């Protein structure tokens, strides 16, 4: 039985490493680019004195969102989702779930957190510590 020789990612040159990461991240088993249907894709904007996080969260309100900050990790959780299964890739149509995003953001003042949810859009602002 002839098994392919697979190099460790550590021993790859830069071109091989890029191709390895590209294949593992963006291609499925048939070498077709993966589609990402995941829910709650945030965008982060870092300014001189503040961090702003935006995300589309259709059909949800502020009551569904929990925010925590522990050991320099900002944790945003959205619970009790009542959206379609295709957006979450859930088998059951009556399933409730939780989606969580975790960000390493040191030196922020969590007491300055400002959260706004309007028309299916989340906007979160946190001041940096100086």
Automatic annotation (TrEMBL):
Lineage top rank: taxon: Bacteria
UniProt xrefs under Gene3D superfamilies: 2.60.40.790
The organism's taxonomic lineage, starting at the top: Bacteria, Bacillati, Bacillota, Clostridia, Eubacteriales
Name of the protein in question: SHSP domain-containing protein
InterPro entries: A-crystallin/Hsp20_dom, HSP20-like_chaperone
Domain SHSP residue range list: 30-130
UniProt similarity note: Belongs to the small heat shock protein (HSP20) family.
């Amino acid at each position: 039985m002839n098994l392919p020789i697979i190099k460790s990612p550590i021993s790859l040159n830069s071109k091989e490493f890029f191709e390895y990461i590209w294949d593992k991240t963006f291609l499925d088993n048939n070498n077709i680019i993966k589609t990402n249907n995941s829910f709650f894709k945030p965008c982060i904007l870092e300014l001189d004195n503040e961090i702003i996080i935006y995300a589309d969260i259709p059909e949800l309100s502020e009551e569904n969102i929990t925010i925590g900050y522990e050991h320099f990790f900002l944790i945003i959780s959205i619970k009790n989702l009542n959206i379609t299964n295709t957006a979450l890739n859930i088998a059951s149509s009556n399933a409730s779930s939780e989606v969580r995003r975790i960000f390493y953001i040191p030196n922020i003042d969590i007491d300055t957190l400002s959260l706004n949810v309007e028309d299916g859009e989340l906007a979160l602002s946190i001041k940096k510590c100086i």
